[in-house]
Amino acid sequence: QVQLVESGGGLVQPGGSLRLSCAASGSIFSINVMGWYRQAPGKQRELVATLTGNGFTNYATSVKGRFTISRDNAKNTVSLQMNSLNPEDTAVYYCNLHYPSPRSDYWGQGTQVTVSS
To answer: Is the pLDDT score of 30 beyond 90?
Structure first.
């Protein structure tokens, strides 16, 4: 099994920055994709950013140029640096570990990010 533990959420003013971190433990295999998703009240969960083990990134259009995803393969951690935050970024952010074959997904418990003045 895999466990994902997130940290780093909180309240920040518009224009501010936050850094989210996620540590994976358990049976971790090297061929995976780690990433972040978010869910705002009344909305579906959506992709924020993903990063493969060999460095390929995918960002939601709404966060390109503001958010940066990074990972440490040796430590099985993934981070999300969020800059220029705006109220539309308010959501619960979830860490995700995805195996393409056989297809499986693991999720963290979520961390709240609130952008408000």
So the answer is: no
